[in-house]
Amino acid sequence: MCGIVGYIGNNAVADVLLNGLKNLEYRGYDSSGIALNDNHTIEVYKASGKLGNLYQLYAKHQPQMANAHQGIGHIRWATHGKATIENAHPHISNDGKLVLVHNGIIENYKELRNKLENQGFVFHSETDTETAVHLIDREYKLCHNLETAVIRAIKQLKGAFAFCIMHADETDKIIAVRKNAPLIIGIGKDENFIASDIPALIGKTNQILHLNDEEIAIVHKSHVEVKDTKGNTLNKTIEKIEFSPEVISKAGYKHFMLKEINEQPAILRKILQKHLPKAEDRVALADSKLNIDLSQVRNITFVACGTSLHAAYIAKATWEKWLNIPVEVVAASEFIYRYNLTDEHSLVIGISQSGETADTITAIKQAKEHNAQLIILTNREDSSITHYSANVIPLEAGIEVSVAATKSFMAQLAALYWTGMYLSEQKDNQNKFLPLKRELYEIPALMEEILSDLSDIKRMGEKLSKFKQIFYIARGIMLPIAMEGALKIKEISYINANAYASGELKHGPIALLDKDTAVIPVLAQGAVYEKTLSNCEEAKARQANIFALSNNDKDKEAALFDEAIIIPEVAEDLSPLLMCLPLQLLAYFAADELGREIDQPRNLAKSVTVE
Ligand code: AGP
Predict the structure, then answer these.
(1) Ligand 1 site: residues with CB under 6 angstroms?
(2) Mean confidence (pLDDT) of the chain
(3) DSSP per residue over 542-593, as a string?
(4) Measured from the CA of 403, which atom of ligand 1 is nearest?
(5) What is the reported pTM?
């Protein structure tokens, strides 16, 4: 949450910063700001609301910004204090000379603020961040050295932070420092960059230096020094990243979400080629790292949040029977506050698209402290969560820009299928799953079939946009997919949508059904198909409007349904891989019909780096 950028070099600083912030908008979009260091004077420009407002402000003041050679910028997802200009970053010291941007939460800010106020520092915002500015400023006034002041100040902070800091009298550097919040340095020629994430650097440089917790980067125009908190210089390796500007372009689609939905067949094909080069062979690890002693594992726990949690529930449905080991799925935010029974006989698997979700990282940290074996599934191999285990399975979905997860969810499912098969084959020391593996190969083409004609899904999505309440119902392996469908439509269309185990309807939720409600049964032929149909009858009898998603052709004309979208039939265990597409598309078309800001829904951010 929140994106930060910094730049020192000869190019137009404000342009570089605004461009960087544009590519970090997925991290928050409540307010934004930039600060420039121009001839020993700090200029701060801030705007509330979308980044476009800051662009407008910039357009007015452009000439004043022309001579600056260093600057920092921020895009905010509000935690402490509303999305006002006062609370927007950058925050500045009382003498106007020291300025900083922050991503994270300073937990002991109240106590520090009290002390600083008693010492005469004047606060202008409700943020935790402003405490850090005055704290560093207090230290600076004692030592007159920005690097030393920052080192002294961060030792007094509790919580998570990534900071970029500038001082009007130290025009040759920007200081960057992090603890439990992401921050990278982009290395250019006679210019250097700081950013929360790679998209801010795409098109600027492909040379990256990763900062670890409590490492301090002193970023000059010509070079970067990295030190520990004792002041020792560290030897850091510069890595090359492969992202091209296309990954952050909409490529002609109206929204990133639609582009990312359409990328799914190609992503799945690539994943299968890598891990299941031939259906007849055992699942291959390719270049993923996995060192698990399954003989020691007595229980498996998945920890994740949101969409990633739904992927975990789908894995539970297959892994328990494939591995014959009990599997539980726990929301990371619950895991971290419950009595922890995890031990050396537990395998704990963290799933996180971003790899920066605070709750999931804490859950994994706790599991590690309890000596559990760990596996991490993430779309970002360079993310914070990967520091806790060498067993990292990359999702390989490519950068996902839309806040609503789509292609990363499908890639999580794919990774969970092949990892579950891999572990099962290891456990039993034999080649298994031949029919399933063969069928997996068919799925990318079947996805393309669904994507080739969106007219029915679009029409149904537009109809759904008229309802105030939508019930997604399903059983078995389709229940988590229904949960994901409900989350998707809720987060981008703001319609109240909830998923229920269809057998649970009659135990309460059925009281809410009437002619103004929509019910979406998610049906896959298999063990519980007929049972779910009976639950649809119960809903129909209460006059609910029933819009089915099914893989049974017969459902197209069934009198039970007001409308039905039929997708190709595959084995029940694999059906979530196909069914996720129409559910994502229904949400997309409903939200588009309502004119919502699909890629940046209100109140949300893509990486939830606070508890
Ligand atoms: C997905 O559409 C959501 N935006 C959200 O639920 C997300 O899945 C959740 O915050 C977890 O994120 P992660 O996978 O990056 O950990």
Answers:
(1) 305-308, 352-354, 357, 360, 403-405, 491, 604, 607-608
(2) 94
(3) TT-EEEEEES-GGGGT-TT-SEEEE-----GGGHHHHHHHHHHHHHHHHHHH
(4) 4
(5) 0.88
